[in-house]
Amino acid sequence: MPYCEVDRYQAGDKWEGVRLFYRRYGRGATKVLLVIGLAGTHDSWGPQIRGLTGSMEPADGGDEPEPAARTDEEAGAPADAPAPATATEEEDVGEGIEVCCFDNRGVGRSTIPPHKSYYSTSIMARDALALMDHLGWKKAHVFGHSMGAMISCKLAALAPHRLSSLALLNVTGGGMECFPKVDAQMLSLAFRFLRARTPEQRALVDLETHYTKEYLDEEVESCTRRAILYKEYVKGISSSGMQSNCGFEGQINACWTHKVTTKELDTIRAAGFLVSVIHGRHDIIAQVCHARRLAQRLLPVARMVDLHGAHLVSHERPQEVNNALMDLIKATKSATAPHEWSSQPENTSETGALISARPVTLTIRTGEAGNAAVAVYNLLAKLQLSFLYVIGLIVMAFEHVRNIVRVTKPVRVAAIESS
What we know:
The protein has 16 helices and twelve strands. By secondary structure, it is an alpha/beta fold. Helix 5 (about 145-160) links the parallel strand 5 (about 140-145) and strand 6 (about 165-170). Residues about 65-90, about 345-365, about 375-390 and about 410-419 have low confidence and may be disordered.
């Protein structure tokens, strides 16, 4: 199996290696690194792998042996030292596209470090960079989804010279922006997610958070997409196993502590590569307003691609997403100027895609009344953020209390009757 050691962490009195499981698809001079989001595994990129390479057959064959044990000399090497690439990995073969996708630390077949301090978007960006070194890739188009888009932003700021382009799917700025819109549906989903203990329970919640209702209710042959996807989700979760609490809490911590600074955004803008911000406008997890704000802050190198879909718009609208990704690759190859890339006029396709480089703004021209309305709106926005923060604290406190009760709960011992 293809693994790459990217980091080391201390476990008691010894050091353990962090290994990432990865897969490669297709062959070609164009390299694409796909970075998946929270609780997702590498195979979540299926529609994009097929769209970019035309095949779902792993280029590595899937039969690579486990890595040999490290020698004493290797064990003394720096944790971030890249593994040497093989000759075949360094070769560019033709004009095709080679894709690599992987399981982030904390999920799937990759290492699950035991403490949340070993998880952050910066740490996982260094993981991705180490994987590129392992593959012998000097540069790559980096496409990230959700938490993976946050990681990709950090990677772009950390090593801008290693990116050919950047695509951010269903992205937010982390922290408070990770909170979804609070309504009855979301509260119900959050409660059911925390209580999910089986693949069947988890699959039901995932479907409602990842797709729009109209997409799930579409008839496909003799049943709905919901029924088909439910079986696929249960099968997928059952085969890979439910994500461990440790891995999930670590990745949640990475999202919660994520923040892209103004300096990092300046670095990305100045790097010279093009950026595409792709979002499902009906996403209830990552609200589209945050993606629009990020795209605006990345002007003039960024283009906003607004699609009719939800959080997994890459699955719900695969053709439109793949077209947007290919447009980015082609624009990079043709050395399209940033202002030409970002100033494409608005247009709405039959499939509901809206491409816009400029954020939608609302201007109120009613004098004092307008100013008062804006002030009230801003106050309500701040109150909503405060409310969300309190909700977050309550949820975290509830989880801590539940864990404490679980540990300290006395063991019931049956009485032994004397003879």
